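Structure first, sequence second, as always.
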């Protein structure tokens, strides 16, 4: 992923968006996305770069330069969609599964139960 276009195409593939969907979210034409991914367009103005990063859930720095690793932004569109999926699935679980699942997730994330140790 050496070029800006390669990084856009890769990130778009990871979040499973078509060029037309990405274009709509960013506020550009599908042709503009195609030109970016094909390398015909070498970069983007800051507002477009920010919109691309937000829609793809990656850092602007990585998208623009390739520096840093592939970074999912905690508030990007992709992250919001994932969180919504997680909440919808959570709501479908019975309480008997929620409690141990929450403990497992907290353990994996290194988060301590706030109720533990508080008197």
């Amino acid at each position: 992923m050496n070029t800006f276009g390669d990084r856009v195409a890769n990130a778009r593939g990871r979040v499973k968006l078509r060029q037309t969907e990405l274009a709509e979210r960013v506020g550009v034409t599908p042709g503009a996305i195609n030109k970016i991914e094909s390398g015909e367009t070498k970069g983007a103005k800051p507002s477009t770069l920010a919109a691309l990063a937000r829609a793809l859930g990656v850092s602007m720095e990585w998208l623009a330069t390739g520096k840093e690793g592939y970074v999912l932004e905690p508030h990007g569109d992709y992250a919001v969609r994932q969180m919504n999926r997680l909440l919808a699935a959570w709501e479908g679980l019975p309480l008997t599964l929620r409690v141990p699942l929450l403990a497992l997730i907290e353990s994996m994330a290194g988060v301590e139960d706030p109720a533990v140790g508080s008197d």
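Margin note: The CA atoms of residues 81 and 87 lie 10 Å apart.
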